[in-house]
Amino acid sequence: MKNLELKEAVYKYVEDNISTFHKKRIASLDNLSLQKVLKRKNPYLFKAKYILRAEELIISLVDAHISSNEETIFGDWLESLAIFINEKIFSGWKSGIPGIDLEFNKEDVRYIVSIKSGPNWGNSSQINKMKSDFTSAKKTLRTSNSQLHAIAVNGCCYGRDNHPDKGEYFKYCGQVFWEFISNEPDLYTEIIEPLGTKAKERNDEFMESYSQMINKFTLEFGQDFCDDGKIDWQKLVIFNSSKKV
Questions:
Q1: Same domain as 204, residue 169
Q2: Same domain, 69 and 34
């Protein structure tokens, strides 16, 4: 596939599928509850920051939830885009092997790829789990084809890693990853433009849901955790951390 054809295919894919990301963003708010958010966050931190207004506390809580949640949602969406692009260039496919996202053949090598959003995605236990998945995947592939040469890759959609050879696998980030799956060195910059497709309209819709959620949670928090207009921090800590269920 020529560069222009790939670019057109990417633009169409994004245009047809970016709404999935925005719908999941809104759905994540619709499924949120104040109690769920309060139990997940550190009340001592917010007290130490000298937060006095209920609305300020609610905005901090909800924004923290949104930030981590959006990273996951958009990471999954970028994974789908990467698989789509690789399928166009190398006839790759979504892997059915546990822990592996993408498989494709290139120059007599089977690449098994675990796709993450950015380079700092996991702690040592999570990285060890990925390495274990790579080992199991190679055993699975050798069972069906003993002559198959498989190489494991941790692909990261953004960022950089100047030491890609990790011994048991390779880690390709940002430009290196997108070129690896497409043979196009400029793809990493070309995919940024279509991501803004109807972004303003979608964001306006999201902000409407967000504002409604902030108002709703602020009212609920005031009723349950405020005393004469002041945040009752002791009551909040008991709700968050008491051993009583």
A1: no
A2: yes
pLDDT tens digit sequence for 58-106: 999 888 888 888 888 888 899 999 999 999 999 999 999 999 999 999 9
Domain carrying residue 157: 91-185
pTM for the whole structure: 0.82
Q: Is residue 83 part of a domain?
A: yes
Question: Domain tally for the chain?
Answer: 2
Residue 80 lies in a domain: yes
Asked if 139 contacts 117 with a C-beta cutoff of 8 angstroms, the reply is: no
What would the two tokens of residue 107 be? 């120059």
